[in-house]
Amino acid sequence: MPLVSLRPVLDAAMAHGYAQGAFNVNAVAQAESVIGVHEMFRSPAILQGADLANAFMGGRTDFQNGTLEDKKKGAKNIADAVKKYAEHSPIPVVLHLDHGRDFDSCVAAIEGGYTSVMIDGSSLPFDQNVELTREVVKYAHARGVSVEGELGVLAGVEDHVFAANSTYTNPLSAVEFFRKTGVDALAISYGTMHGASKGKNVKLRREIPIAIRECMNHEGLHGALVSHGSSTVPQYIVDEINALGGAIQNAYGISKEELKAAIPCGISKINVDTDIRLAVTRNLRELFRDRPELKTDARIGGVWELLDKNRAAFDPRAFLPPLMDTVMYGTGDDGTVALITDAMRRGVREAVGTLIVEFGSVGRAPLVELAGLDEMAARYAKE
After folding, report:
1. What positions does the entry give for dihydroxyacetone phosphate binding (predicted)?
2. What are the two backbone dihedrals, phi and then psi, of residue 245, each rounded to the nearest 5 degrees?
3. pLDDT the model gives residue 163
4. Per the annotation, does 258 bind a ligand?
5. What is the pLDDT of residue 161?
6. CATH of the domain at 160
7. Is 38 contained in some domain?
């Protein structure tokens, strides 16, 4: 079926009391696998391409320095892959821009085929954040595309997003933000952190989403709350990576119990990236351990060289530059290259499948209203 916007998927989650996982992808094989595992559980699916993932998928291996043109190219590549695998899928699929850093990045994603975008103005003063977010909302809603904003600062590192300390979201400011911008969803800061080093035994401040939800209900405002920086960082995978020659230190996530307890407090979308990165990295290291002759293979030996050189890294983008055509377009996915993409697919299924079950979206696909972008644009125009 055609891709849908984020709004109806989160409306269903709010109405029925579960959370929708949102999973980041950086390669065609990952997009295929995320959709496939959601189909297996008959769950709606939210695939996310981060702003710099678009640069990477545009062929920029030094994606931190990606240009707008790189992002435009990459957005189309991701969207083409997601549309290909969603076309005959029985579940609703959303393609969402994660951490759009400016208006132009959001426009590039929408023009490339994204059906939902996040504009991250959380580092700006409140009024400037409102102004930027409102500008994106106006552009996106006219095209039926939903918008997520952010208020409050999460500590940690993820792509270009960095902050040394967290600033918790003020519930009253969140309500004002919804009212002034018209966003469909808002990422809040309530104790989560970006990256793999969140600290041991993190306790989320669930009173923050509770307060926001109660105030919004009182004011008659509509909108979903989003939990960023919510990877669980499975310790067994970290241990396996290190046993396979990796050197990952101080990697701790948010416990599944803490995340599940936040759902009835008002959290409807939970973002996960690091768990997928870890599972894929473990599988790649395992492949070369079990098949040492592949370390000198003409097609994939370069992947091993980067794995061996970057022992502390767990972002697959650090290891995949030798296979960029396969990453970007899915071409050349045969022979020994297929061993790499199989490892990636299995890692995605392992990380994502568990959380679909934990977050409660199993069997929820029929609950989502299948409104196309044109229909959503007409609805937004009436609001």
Report:
1. 195, 229-231, 271-274
2. 105, 0
3. 42
4. no
5. 45
6. 3.20.20.70
7. yes
* pTM for the model: 0.93
Q: Is residue 190 part of a domain?
A: yes
Given CA atoms 333, 337, 343, 347 in this order, what sign does their dihedral have? negative
229 assigned binding-site residue: yes
**Is residue 273 part of an annotated ligand binding site?**
yes
pLDDT digits (tens, 9 = 90+) for 220-229: 999 999 999 8
Q: What is the H or E stretch that residue 45 is in?
A: strand 45-50
Length of the chain: 383
Give the Cβ contact number of residue 287 at 10 Å: 21
Low-confidence stretches of the chain (pLDDT beneath 70): 153-166, 194-201
Count CB atoms within 10 A of the CB of residue 298.
8
The residue among 106, 107, 108 whose CA lies nearest residue 98 is 106
Domain that residue 90 falls in: 6-273+348-378
Spatial CB neighbours of 262, under 8 Å, sequence gap ≥ 6: 19, 190, 204, 206, 209, 227
Report residue 195 as tokens: 């990256």
What's the confidence (pLDDT) of residue 157? 44
Asked if residue 324 belongs to a domain, the reply is no
Q: Is 230 annotated as a binding residue?
A: yes
Annotated ligand binding at 194? The verdict is yes
| pLDDT the model gives residue 2 | 86
- Assess if residue 306 is contained within a domain: no
User: Taking a C-beta distance cutoff of 8 angstroms, is the pair 35, 14 a contact?
Assistant: no
70 part of the active site: no
pLDDT digits (tens, 9 = 90+) for 333-344: 999 999 999 999
Q: How many domains does the chain have?
A: 1
pLDDT of residue 167: 77
